[in-house]
Each structure stands twice: as C-alpha cells, then as structure tokens.
Design goal:
The chain is α/β, with parallel strands linked by helices and 261 residues long. It has one domain: Alpha/Beta hydrolase fold, catalytic domain (Rossmann fold, 3-Layer(aba) Sandwich). It is 39% helix and 17% strand. The chain is built from 9 helices and 8 strands. Strands 1-2-4-3-5-6-7-8 form an 8-stranded mixed sheet, with helices on both faces. It is globular and about 50 Å long.
C-alpha cells in the first residue's frame, strides 16, 4: 500500500512539473492572460527542446486545445514544449487600431515569447506556431510579422480572410466596424499580407475541411501561396468547423512539424 501511494505521489509530482500556468499582467491587454504550458514529463530545464505555440479559436481560452487533443500526451509523444496562451476570447492576436489596451501582437512578441524562452530554454531552430480558426489566422499573422523567430507555421480551419467574418466573431469591436469593402480588412488579413513572405522559404502548413465556412478563403490562400512560390503545403479534406475535425487535423500538423529537418 505504501509503495502504491509513493508511486501515485511520484506521478503527481511529474505531472505538476510537466504542466505550468503563467499569468501575465500586461500593459498591452485589458486583463491578465493565463498561459498553460505542457512539457514532456521527463523534461529537464537544462534541455533545449522544440516548442510549439498553439492558439485557440474565437470564444475559446487557453484550455481549448487541451480539451481537444490532450496536450500532455502530445508533449510526451513528440518531446515538445506546448504553449497554450489565452487569446482573450476575441483578440484575433492583432494590435487593434481602435482599442489601445488590445495590442495582442505586442504582448506576444515583447512579453510572452521572450518569457517562455527564458523559462524553457527552447531550441531556436525548432520553434513552431499554429492554431485553429481565429488562432489559425493569428498564427500565420504572427509568422508574417516576424518569420525570423519561427521555424515553420501552420493553421487549421483558419479565418485567413477577415472579410469572410464581416460583422462577426468580435471583429467589429476590434477593428472599429468598417464597411466590408474597406481597406482595413485587407491591412489585417493573412490573405492580403502573405505576399510579404515572398522569397522566404520557411515551411507553412495549413488545412481546412471542405464543409467549413472558411473553406473558400483557405483555397484563395493556397492559390496565392502557389503564385508566390512559397514553401506552403495545403491539405483540403472532409470536415467541418468543429472539435472532431481539429482533433484529426492537429495530429497531422504535429507530424508535419516533427518531420521537418
């Protein structure tokens, strides 16, 4: 009995070390941001492992990805540090032009990224970012802004064309509710900024289900990537905008990132 209890306590200690939550009180955000980090259970902080930032979708929070795919299991299987920040429900991971306290891009690059680097000493040559829906747009948006920080980027069911979300998903508050044809939608949209990566050979992997309401925008992004001759892989497959699809697609994304040399 004593041996059994000792084993249980050992497992709990490992789990406690493998998972940590960090709360950031940032000048760039309207409220504290909680970030949940999953490291392999065998992780020693003297190690330098791959890291992947997983961004959640609209109306979700830092718990969403773990509810879909069991992040601790993935951290152990792929020997990666998995970072799940809170996207503040509807930040789209952007710097809002109308809300001074919604500057998520600044928070990510100036506070979150360097703090995770300091805490977990990740391998600079193995830094990945991806996300679902709003987070898919966010991952590619942040990659376009500073591709030198990442090894590769991904998106699953990403809202890569903001005009597809006109009047919805918190964008009116974030961008000031401009008319649909307004140039501001293009200014912040992945689809209209992807050309900034022309000549950059870093891998991009994105996918979308054929029954997804963001499917048309992802197909347009694929054509743009082809025109620009980017190192982009696009997977169109059966599926909708839901957890069942993301549970399948995130496994495919981890496999893609794992196999990069």
């Amino acid at each position: 009995m004593k041996f059994y209890l000792a084993c249980v306590l050992f497992v709990l200690c490992l789990s406690g070390f493998a998972q940590e939550q960090h709360v950031y009180n940032s000048k760039n955000l309207p409220k504290p941001d909680t970030t949940w980090v999953f490291a392999p259970k065998t992780f020693d902080k003297t190690q330098s492992l791959a890291v992947i930032f997983l961004l959640h979708g609209y109306s979700g929070n830092y718990k969403q990805w773990n509810g879909i795919m069991d992040a601790q299991k993935y951290a152990d299987e792929y020997n990666m540090v998995i970072v799940c920040p809170d996207g503040m429900f509807s930040s789209w991971y952007l710097n809002s032009p109308v809300k001074p306290d919604w500057q998520y891009e600044n928070f990510f690059f100036d506070e979150l990224f360097p703090d995770i680097k300091k805490r977990y000493n990740f391998d600079d040559k193995k830094v990945f970012i991806t996300g679902l829906s709003m987070g898919g747009h966010g991952a590619l948006h942040l990659f376009i802004k500073k591709p030198e920080l990442f090894t590769a980027a991904g998106s699953t069911s990403g809202g890569v064309k903001l005009a597809e979300s006109f009047g919805k998903f918190g964008l009116p508050d974030l961008l000031g509710n401009p008319p649909q044809e307004h140039e501001l939608w293009k200014t912040f949209s992945v689809l209209h900024n992807i050309e900034k990566l022309k000549g950059n050979n870093k891998p991009i992997y994105f996918d979308c289900g054929a029954s997804d309401f963001f499917y048309v925008g992802n197909n347009e992004l694929k054509l743009k990537c082809d025109d620009l001759k980017l190192n982009a892989t696009y997977l169109s497959q059966p599926g909708s905008h839901n957890g069942q699809y993301w549970k399948k697609s995130i496994k495919q994304q981890f496999e893609f990132f794992k196999n990069l040399k």
